[in-house]
Description:
Mean pLDDT: 81
Radius of gyration: 24 Å
CATH superfamily: MetI-like
Number of helices: 13
Largest sheet: 2 strands, antiparallel
CATH architecture: Orthogonal Bundle
Structural class: mainly alpha
Strand content: under 5%
Distance between the termini: 25 Å
CATH topology: MetI-like fold
Helix content: over 70%
Number of strands: 2
CATH class: Mainly Alpha
Low-confidence stretches: 272-276
Strand order of the largest sheet: 1-2
Amino acid sequence: MRRNGVNHGKSYAFLHAIMISLFFLPFIPLLAWSFAQQWRFPDLVPTVSERAWLYVFSTHSQVKDAIFNSLGLAAVTSLLSQVVAYPAARALGLYVKRWNKTIRLLLIAPILIPGISIAIGVHVLFLHSGLSDQWLGVLLSHLIPAIPYSIYLLYGFYAGYDIGYEKQFRLLGAGRLQTFRLVELPLLRSVLSLSILFSFLISWSQYLFTVFIGGGNLITLPMLLFSTLSSGDYSLMGALCMVFVLPALIIVIFSSIGVKKDLFEEKEASRVDPIV
């Protein structure tokens, strides 16, 4: 039995290593191109140059401002989407029974409808309301696709949530905030982290809404990346792609570490010491 367990462990580690390799494999050509001056057939190794990275970190490029704009929009979008999604998901999962499926279908409509149709409609609406070409307007437009994802992720948690834990805690004299902090939040933490991650990545990679609503006044990293694609500068394209992917990779890695830590803590908490 122990030998079989060791073999299963080795097989799992091998498959895990293959999956990690396949995940990072597409980034190898991008990294190589970012340091390439030229890369022509039949050369196996490109001519090395730091031109693209020097331009990315130079003071006269728009990359620095685009990174700050993208990070700011993504951070605020991920937080605000949770503020809106939390009460909606809790109500749908625990209290709303009538027309539940219809309401959830309406909430997911912004994901099902083509993005360019929504972007054009929102652009016309924001032109009349004075939110077009404004940072606030771009932020509100990013919330349109982010909130439905957050609601559905949190709804999956509350659909199987036992509210009896809260009732027992309230009977002991705890208030609503104390019940949320000590009972609900520890159980919700993993799903909430995933919801924040999804919302951040949706805003971070948003292009259509930023172009239509921002009107070119607010430059983000996806806008620079799309404009570089038509220039034919593969070195700069590779460098911008690496800058664009790096925050997402960091968030995914830290989130996976947090999820594994939570699972380990749950396993340790559920383990019962044998009676001697």
